[in-house]
Amino acid sequence: MTLAGCALCETEGGVAVFRADKFRAIRAEEAGFPAFYRLVWNAHVAEFSDLSAADRHLCMEAVTLIEAVLRRQLQPTKVNLATLGNVVPHLHWHVIARFDWDSHFPAPVWGAAVRPDNAAALARVRSELPTLDGAIRAALATLPDAL
Questions:
Q1: What share of the chain has pLDDT > 90, as a percent?
Q2: Which of 23, 50, 70, 137 has the most CB within a 10 Å radius?
Q3: What domains lie within the chain, and their CATH numbers?
């Protein structure tokens, strides 16, 4: 089911990394946070509890795989997981690699910056994005119900 006017029903929501029947992984284009991914449920549901038990399990397995790839490839200080849906009420999980050098750390990415961007560190992470996207794509393809 899709909903007219829903940004995540009508667009990918970012750079496409992986697409399955039930969900997709995208890389959000958030300034200052190059390793910011979203797991988007394809059908328009607003809440995690709207999913069946099997779909909740699949969704969280996919989120976990994205987190594991971020940790393995980037060794971030922390990985933030969030599902808010206050602005876009379409089920999606944020999976964000955070670093002690990022402009907002340790505050949330949606808060105020606590320091200027570290251009050199951001460039290093950006240079890893093609490899990172490929590793996420490969990890998600291992899920038995993903395709």
A1: 80
A2: 23
A3: 7-99+116-140 (3.30.428.10)
